[in-house]
Amino acid sequence: MSDEQSEIKRYGITRRWSDAVVFGSVAYFVEVPDDPQLSAEDQFYQVLSQVDLRLELVGSDRTRLLQVMIYLPDPSDLLLFNRIWDDWVPEGHAPSRACVHTSLAAPGYRVELVITAAVA
Questions:
Q1: Domain that holds residue 95
Q2: Cα separation of 5 and 36, whole Å?
Q3: Radius of gyration of the chain (CA)
Q4: In terms of CB atoms within 10 Å, which of 7, 34, 52, 81 comes out highest?
């Protein structure tokens, strides 16, 4: 690997985390809705919009998603999330994905996504 290929790029660095990390041609990031006061449906739309922005930031897009881990604290939200997800993911470009029912770090959040995507 050349030095450029092995360089780790970090975006939005804080003491505790980076908004996104790119290594080689792969980006890694986590998204939670910006506004946990919204309804579950609005949070789902918001978090997917945030994913679009983050993908653009790292030089990727929805067609280059590799894997998505979905965390939902309320399993009854899965049908709604899947309906919104199916409209959002481009046909023929679905990533590997898993959905886990678990509590999240702060009350009010209805979804958290862990994203791995290829970078152009």
A1: 24-118
A2: 37
A3: 15
A4: 81
